[in-house]
Amino acid sequence: RPGHPLAAPAAAAAASAAAHVSPAVASGASSSIHSAAAMTVLGSFNLMFFAKHAVLLALTLPSQAVLWQFAWSMQRQSEFVLMCLGPLNLLPLIMSDIYALQMLGLIGIGGAAVQLYVANEMHKLGLQVI
After folding, report:
1. What is the rounded distance in angstroms from the CA atom of residue 112 to the CA atom of residue 80?
2. Segment 82-96 mean pLDDT
């Protein structure tokens, strides 16, 4: 409103801000170029973030499947499979920024260790029976 007591200072502040804006930004040509470059950088960052964590998730899935199979049916896996799948979980544990992926890696390593321990105990018990 023109009669409002704060109208004059607001108009003066707007004029002062317009005086400090560079001509390239004021024309709008440069700002659209900068925003397009920022979107490209942010878009590629999001794509790289997604790709990295998708690969890390794919590395944890085999050991999770083996652990689920062991927990569901107590079907013993060979030690070779467990030894091969265990180190795959180190990458998500070390490289991931997502806490859930780090926990999946930890569960994969812990699950492989538990399976190896149970297999060793079952072997010892079998030898005692013989």
Report:
1. 11
2. 91
